[in-house]
């Protein structure tokens, strides 16, 4: 895998990124360490985490994933310089009262304090890519469909204030580059416009949900990213397991489905976009197409992301070493044009059921 640039920053990453939100909830610490080590052995230099993780978020596991990564780094001297480490500051609490006491804001002081906490937990001196996990503005995300001005987060910090906090961190040598997550075209434009206007750090990347079940990136955000020179980091390319085929025969709660998979183990995930009937219906259609053309469902779903021009690095999340190897092995898979056309036909019929 050749290294790719992130936006206009000096960061160079592998086109596969190891997502770690399962560490500390579905994946215990020894297994997490084994996955981190195997990922590096397989040539992946990019790790993504967040102060909020593990997922599903709970007060008991808040910050736990970063601590697990920090313990691994401490136990493996010399590994840090081989890696590009990304983490995220949580946006407004969205009902998570353990995040900044349930604050509906994300101030400059919050961003600086959160960064210091992440640095300490991970036993590192600098975060390579520091991202805002979701906007302070009220925008449709995590299964939301529509923007409604009536839901505006009145009194929330302005984008310029957030940028100035990031500027403080960059100048202090605590952050190398900045990014966004769960953002809209408007948000990306404003962050870039204000950065250029005031000489503040320029956004390098946007981490959004993107894959076969959620392709709204291709309806406007991709043009924004292309023209502004900002990289896309897709998360959930396997749609919380829907695109692995594990739910095809028995349904979400079938007796043959492992009790450890996210959509069965955690009721909160079923209530979000992944548990929608149309999401399962579309996934089964895509999975059947994959088998028809001689691919596994996971292989096709990952290859779809790996080969899209819009994508810089795809974030993969796993529970086992076997899953990690399968996801990395899918790199280099080329999907025939005929299959891509059939994929588009399914999307035309069942539009993005897991946005």
TrEMBL record:
Keyword Oxidoreductase: yes
Keywords for this protein: Oxidoreductase
Domain NADP-dependent oxidoreductase: 15-346
Domain of life where this protein originates: Bacteria
The keyword Oxidoreductase is assigned to this record: yes
Protein name, entry field: Aldo/keto reductase
InterPro entries tied to this protein: AKR_Detox_Biosynth (IPR050523), NAD(P)_OxRdtase_dom_sf (IPR036812), NADP_OxRdtase_dom (IPR023210)
